[in-house]
Design goal:
Order of helices and strands: EHEHHEHEHHEHEHHHHHHHHHH
Distance between the termini: 67 Å
Structural class: alpha/beta
Radius of gyration: 25 Å
CATH class of the largest domain: Alpha Beta
CATH superfamily of the largest domain: P-loop containing nucleotide triphosphate hydrolases
CATH topology of the largest domain: Rossmann fold
Number of domains: 2
CATH architecture of the largest domain: 3-Layer(aba) Sandwich
Strand order of the largest sheet: 1-6-2-5-4-3
Number of strands: 6
Strand content: 5-15%
Helix content: 55-70%
Number of helices: 17
Length: 325
């Protein structure tokens, strides 16, 4: 069978012409889950309770459990659809099935049964296997290469893929984004998924509480990179400009500045500037600094995210002071 991109699979689903078996693999858990959920669109909404089944294979760690699990999956796949032309069976954490951690006679029999299922799929059922990266040398992976459609999630081939990835990630963050805004992020970051992820996370933080993320929000947070000014970030916070401050933080971190150096600059800003420009916010700002310092030292979160949260809090305090004045 073929290897397809997530975008190509979505077109198959929209057209109602899915392949019998899919393997969704890769480290991008958000995209895998979102794509797996789209297969339910193959079944009329009112009949999904009878024709859409989700199975978790994560606890199938022993030979007997594996055998029972494969038997259940086979039974689900072979069940005829009810009042619709197609059933959908999704297996989460399928790597446990495909590459068992323990070898035994029961596990070997289960793999034989699974291989037979792959070689003779049920024409009225779409089987979706959702897995982390699977060893390409394994027996089951080689079988799937011949009989299944393999989809690598988190790999972007063009700007359309990048734009779709942005929409999926924003939706997973509980927000909505205008199409021009998603397109603008994709155009600025390209297919660099590391930069896309950082831009979207920064945007979600910046637009926290908004119903809709707009292109103006994107321009505020992911504007074109300019010459790096070591104090541009603190100047932006002093002016209460969260978008500029977040953008400058990104430039500093992308240039290799350690989180401790950035925190030191923010500490200087609070000590030297806040007593004059935001006196009512000094205590809150100091508490936020101490909390961030502690979180960084105990690795309680991604350093970039921790610093972004701190910057948003400092800018909020500065804007509050400006309104009172």
């Amino acid at each position: 069978m073929a290897a397809l991109s997530p975008a190509a699979v979505l077109k198959q689903i929209a057209a109602g012409t899915p392949d019998p078996i899919y393997l969704l693999q890769g480290d991008d858990e958000v995209e895998k889950s979102a794509l797996a959920a789209e297969f339910a669109e193959l079944v009329e909404e009112g009949l999904r309770a009878f024709n859409v089944e989700r199975i978790h294979a994560g606890d199938l760690t022993t030979g007997d459990r594996l055998a029972d699990g494969v038997a259940s999956i086979a039974a689900a796949v072979r069940t005829l659809p009810m009042m619709v032309p197609r059933r959908v069976v999704t297996v989460m954490q399928a790597e446990t099935l495909l590459v068992p951690k323990r070898e035994s006679e029961a596990a070997s029999r289960a793999l034989d049964q699974l291989e037979a299922l792959f070689k003779e799929p049920e024409p009225q059922t779409t089987l979706v296997l959702v897995a982390s990266t699977v060893d390409k040398r394994s027996r089951m992976y080689r079988t799937l290469q011949k009989h299944a459609t393999i989809v690598d999630c988190g790999v972007l081939s063009d700007l359309a893929d990048a734009e779709r990835w942005v929409r999926t990630r924003v939706a997973a963050g509980g927000a909505a984004i205008d199409p021009p805004a998603a397109r603008l992020i994709a155009q600025r970051a390209g297919t660099d998924i590391k930069r896309l992820r950082a831009d979207v996370e920064r945007l979600l933080l910046y637009a926290l509480g908004q119903k809709q993320i707009t292109a103006d929000d994107v321009r505020e947070v992911t504007g074109p990179a300019g010459l790096q000014d070591d104090w541009a970030m603190t100047n932006a916070i002093e002016a209460g400009q969260a978008g500029d401050a977040l953008r400058q933080l990104a430039l500093m971190l992308d240039a290799g500045a350690p989180a401790e150096k950035v925190l030191g600059q923010l500490g200087w800003l609070v000590r030297a500037k806040f007593p004059a420009v935001a006196p009512a916010s000094v205590r809150t700002a100091i508490d936020a600094l101490f909390r961030t310092d502690l979180d960084l030292k105990r690795s309680a979160g991604d350093p970039r995210v921790l610093l972004e949260r701190l910057i948003v809090e400092l800018c909020a305090g500065r804007r509050g002071a400006a309104r009172r004045w």
